[in-house]
Amino acid sequence: RLAAFRTGRLHYGWAHYGGLGTDAALALKRTHPDFKLTPVPVGYVNMLLLPLDKKPFDDIRVRRAIHLAIDRQEMVKTIVGPQGGHVSGPISWRLFPDWALSEQELLQTPGYRQPKDQDLAEARKLLAEAGYPQGLTVDAEGAQYVQWLNLYPVEVAKSQLAKVGITVNLKIQDWAKYKDAEEVKGDFLLRARGHNAYPEPDDQLFTRHYSKGSRNYQKFKDAQLDAWLDAQRAELDPAKRKELVRKIQLRLLEVLPQIWLFTADQMAIVHPDVRNLATDVVTTHGITDEIWMAR
């Protein structure tokens, strides 16, 4: 693909659709500086999805230990490259800079802060309190489809969790079975996921975390969150709604139904002859009938 861009056989690519990884895209820019590169955040947060109905994930102490043990900065660097993503809370500050917990705030909180020494010590203490002073073993699953989303995060998590005594047995599943186990049967193992949603805070939060949300495959229930999620839907004052959305995010970081990791930036690559192609998280390929070639 890199050769195709350099020789003029490709004029546009984004993410998995004729695109390049961040390193290859930057290499293209060095040799062909007239190409336009636009980092576009994907419409979801990469996360570890926990089967809350299975032990040990029904214990908040274990969930918090996992949250503390994960090194998100290392995960970003390993999976998407230092320029390919950013750590994230329950909703992405890259998508919602006025609504989400900021990167600066996250980097000062347990689980996100560096260095990791204090978090790792606290994780071991929590596991001991939960009845696992010698550590524990958990089963996990991944899929080869879109590996940076459905496989690589759990592979990196496996090595990171080992530092606090959590051994992860990882099995690779066929994509159809992987998806069916979660979305149809609701019977799955620890896994890496990201649930796409319309770029509006309500759609991102309500569908996954409301007790009757359409994508609440974990059957997660929290009465306080339900009340706040209902309230923010009815609130007409933007400032008051933002405060409710903030409370929701902080509450999610307390109860941890998922372990939020990062938001990836997918590089949109546009040849200088391509005109009027504006790409963003909604219109990743632009509006087709407005695009033209200057030839």
Task: Report what the structure shows.
This protein has 295 residues and is α+β, with helices and mostly antiparallel strands. It has twelve helices and ten strands. The protein has helices at 2-6, 22-31, 60-69, 72-79, 103-106, 117-129, 147-150, 152-161, 175-185, 201-209, 223-234, 238-255; strands at residues 12-14, 36-41, 46-49, 85-87, 136-143, 166-173, 190-193, 258-270, 274-275, 292-293. The strands form two sheets. Strands 1, 2, 3, 4, 5, 6, 7 and 8 form an eight-stranded mixed β-sheet that branches. Strands 9-10 form a two-stranded antiparallel sheet. Helix 3 packs antiparallel against helix 6. It is globular. The chain starts with a helix and ends with a strand.
Short overview:
This protein is of the alpha+beta class. 39% of the residues lie in helices and 18% in strands.
What low-confidence regions span 5 or more consecutive residues with pLDDT below 50? none
- Cα shape: globular
Q: What order do the SSEs take from the amino end to the carboxyl end, as H and E?
A: HEHEEHHEHHEHHEHEHHHEEE
What is Rg?
20 Å
Number of helices: 12
What number is the mean pLDDT? Answer: 93
